[in-house]
Every structure is written in C-alpha cells, then in structure tokens.
Design goal:
Elements: E1 14-17, H1 20-40, E2 45-49, H2 56-69, E3 76-80, E4 82-85, H3 95-102, E5 114-115, H4 126-139, E6 145-148, E7 170-173, H5 176-186, E8 195-198, H6 201-205, E9 210-214, H7 220-228, E10 246-251
Parallel strand pairs: 1-10, 2-3, 2-6, 3-5, 6-9, 9-10
Antiparallel strand pairs: 4-8, 7-8
Helix pairs in contact: 1-2
The structure holds fructose -6-phosphate (F6R).
C-alpha cells in the first residue's frame, strides 16, 4: 500500500440489504433521484453504467420507473464502462446489445447521448479513440455517478489485477478468471474475446459519486478482500477504500464475510 493512500471506509459507506432485489431497487432509486434532481435544475446528468448480471434488476426497475412513474431519461448522457474487443455491436454478447436490451431500448434517452467504448474496423487508431472517450467525459464535467459491479478477481470495469491506479480508457487483456466467468454466456471459452476496451481506474475514481453493487455468495470473498484487505493494484476495487464518494451496496450473501 502506498503511503499517501488512506482508508476512508466507514459504516456510512456500507448499505446492506436482505435481498438482491432490495439492493437493486435502492440503487435504481438513487439513480432516478439524481436524474430527477438534475432535470428540475434544467441540467443534464452524466452516468457511468455497467453491464453483467449484477445491474439487470437495477435497469429493470429504472425501466419500470420510466413506464409507470414518468421518470424521463431525456437529460441523461451515459458512458458505459467497457465493451469486448473485437465484437460486432449486433452480437447478442456485446455490451451494446445488452444495454439496448435491458435499458436503452425501453426509455427515452437520446441515442446520441449514449456512449459505449466500441471499436470496430472503422476505427484506425484505438489509442486516439480511447483518448477521445476520456476527453468527452471530461468536457461534460465528469461522471456525476458511476455504477460498478465487481469481478471475482477484484476488477472494476475491465481493470484487471495489476491495472495501474492511474490508468485511463484503453485496450486491455482479459484475465483468465474474467474469461472463465463469461464462458457460460458465450457457450465456450474459445468464443470469449481475449480483449476489451475499458475505462481506466483513474477514469472511474474521478466520478463524483460511485455505487458499487455486489450480489450473491459468489462475491462474498472478493468483497471481503476489496473492502477490508490491502489497497493494492492486485485488487483494483481496493482503491475505492480511499474514496469518500463510494457506497458499497450489498445483499446479505455478498456481505456474509464482512459482518
Ligand atoms: C461490466 C463490468 C464488470 C462487471 C463484473 C461483474 O460492465 O464492468 O466489471 O461489473 O465483471 O459482473 P457480473 O455482474 O456479471 O457478476
């Protein structure tokens, strides 16, 4: 642990829920409130969004709030954390497809406000593309809220173990645990891409507010290490211990080893 990193972790940063449903609804409500507050002030809101199993119920609830309780996404500008590389956006395993299926296809977000770090054959210079992704976030004043899941190896976004805390959006190699966890979705390990484009750790930690959602027993071990263990690039999520703007939203099972 570097000397200038201090653990700001305290019980206020922990939100524990009996069920995954309650935890997800809490997160959806936090996002909805922020969207509405900004809307009332005539402002847009910049959201950093995650994919994977964890946020599915959050998105389901946001869609419900849009359909039944007139929550509008007209002022939302979104940036997704990551996308596989290479992958076609119409591939049903792409995160572009995922976001359309679970959220964007059901709400009134302006399609031109959606950003997913997708690189296709039209993009000649990946580094330049990634820099433009970072610049776009900064030019909008940064992320107002970043939603995170956590990988069983401690990754946030696809910042795998060993990722520098000063990393920004870039092409990354996926860790064996990450690829193994995606195997059942892709049908076989060979089909899981070797690489992805991911926002960096530095991109994430600059968000004004960060909600890390972890659900289920399979996340309990990494949650215990990331929240209570050493702050180390080997567990990228451990950097969050140093930040005052982080809330860990956990169901009982994910929190079972830290109680
Ligand atoms: C996804 C992402 C990843 C996931 C993590 C957990 O955009 O950035 O860090 O949040 O791999 O995935 P699930 O939720 O499927 O367990």
């Amino acid at each position: 642990m570097s000397n200038n990193l201090h653990n700001t972790f305290n019980s206020k940063s922990l939100k524990l829920w009996d069920s995954s449903e309650q935890a997800s609804i809490y997160v959806a409500n936090q996002i909805a409130e922020l969207i509405s507050e900004h809307r009332k002030q005539g402002k847009s809101v910049v959201l950093g969004l995650a994919t994977g199993n964890t946020p599915k119920k959050v998105y389901q609830e946001l869609v419900r709030l849009h359909q039944n309780e007139s929550l509008s996404f007209a002022n939302v500008i979104s940036f997704n954390l990551d996308e596989y590389y290479p992958i076609f956006p119409d591939n049903d395993m792409s995160y572009t497809y995922f976001m359309q299926k679970y959220l964007f296809g059901h709400v009134d977000i302006d399609p031109s406000n959606i950003h997913i770090p997708h690189v296709d054959s039209n993009v000649e210079d990946i580094e330049e593309y990634c820099k433009a992704y970072e610049d776009k976030i900064s030019s909008l004043g940064g992320l107002d809220l970043q939603l995170l899941g956590i990988g069983r190896n401690g990754h946030i976004g696809f910042n795998e173990p060993g990722s520098s805390f000063s990393s920004t959006t870039r092409l990354v190699d996926l860790h064996p645990v990450t690829r193994a966890d995606a195997e059942s979705d892709f049908g076989s390990l060979e089909k899981v891409p070797q690489q992805a484009i991911s926002m960096g750790v530095h991109t994430i930690v600059q968000a004004k507010r960060i909600l890390l959602l972890a659900l289920g027993e399979r996340k309990s071990e990494i949650i215990s290490k990331a929240l209570r263990g050493e702050i180390t690039t080997e567990i990228p999520a451990s950097i969050l211990q140093t930040l005052p703007q982080v809330e860990y939203v956990l169901d009982n099972e994910a929190a079972s080893l830290i109680k």
